[in-house]
Amino acid sequence: MKKESQEEKLYICKPCGYVMKESELGEVCPACGLPKKVFEQYKERMSSGRSKILHLDMHPIAVHFPQTLLVFILQALIINLIFPNFFPEVLLGAARFAGAIFPFTVVAAFISGLIDGKLRFKSVTTPILKKKIIYSVIMTIAALFTPFLIWNDIDNLTSKISLLICGSIALFCGIVLGHAGKRLMNIGMGGAVKIWGRKF
Ligand code: HEM
Q: Which of 57, 116, 125 to mutate to test ligand 1, by most ligand atoms within 8 A of the CB atom?
């Protein structure tokens, strides 16, 4: 039964690139609303092994951890700098914890990105992926400094400013990486739109 559904024909909405199963075809494209006359049959261009691993969405999931931690660390720091008496132990304590695990999450995002890029494009030396590697290295270096700055003497103003600079560099790299990544999301799979890890 499972095999049958895997072999179900796929259709693509040519103008917007949304891909759906034959059984899901309606009168209009669920994504852009154009009538079904614009649909045409869609053929998977990737081997099912590669496609299965990519559909685990390891990288798109992994990147959320460093981004969330970083935003939290910076927020806690800025609040503490502006309002030093507002729950300093809680804010700086939580920032300490987040700072200690932050580098691991950046490394995990980096590695999952390399795997994702290799599977999707067969090479990680294309111009955009090279750019992503460079920014990932800078982000990793900034992330490695973070725990030292946080754990050494977070109550000291110089440490707080250094941490703010370091975190801002990591945040800038994260934004550049996210922008570049977003543009890579729907290519290499024939323009298919993915929802919740499934390609329709
Ligand atoms: C810490 C490092 C990295 C961060 C923070 C990051 C961030 C992101 C983000 C935010 C996305 C879009 C995900 C979404 O919108 O759900 C993305 C996608 C992507 N990134 Fe990265 N990235 C990193 C490293 C890398 C590296 C080193 C490569 C490969 C050389 C890479 C290749 C890709 C690819 C191929 C996509 C498209 C993913 C897909 O469609 O499954 N990334 N990245």
A: 116
The domain containing residue 18 runs over which residues?
2-43
- Co-location of 73 and 156 in the same domain: yes
User: What pTM did the predictor assign?
Assistant: 0.81
27 and 89 part of one domain: no
> 2-11, 91-100, 115-124, 136-145: which has the minimum mean pLDDT?
2-11
What CATH number did the domain enclosing 15 receive? 2.20.28.10
DSSP structural state of residue 24: G
Contacts of 193 by beta carbon, 8 Å cutoff, 6+ apart: 16, 17, 18, 19, 31, 186, 199, 200
Q: 179 alpha carbon to ligand 1 midpoint, in Å?
A: 9
Ligand 1 near 133 CB (within 6 A): yes
Within 8 A by CB and 6+ apart from 161, the residues are none
Q: Identify which of 51, 132, 134 to mutate to test ligand 1's pocket (most ligand atoms within 8 A of the CB).
A: 132
Identify whether residues 69 and 98 lie together within a single domain: yes
Establish whether residue 182 lines the binding site of ligand 1, counting it when its CB lies within 6 angstroms of any ligand atom: yes
Count of structural domains, the chain:
2
* Per-residue pLDDT at 3: 46
Q: Are residues 143 and 62 in the same domain?
A: yes
Rg of the chain over all Cα atoms, to the nearest angstrom: 22
* pLDDT over 60 at 188, yes or no: no
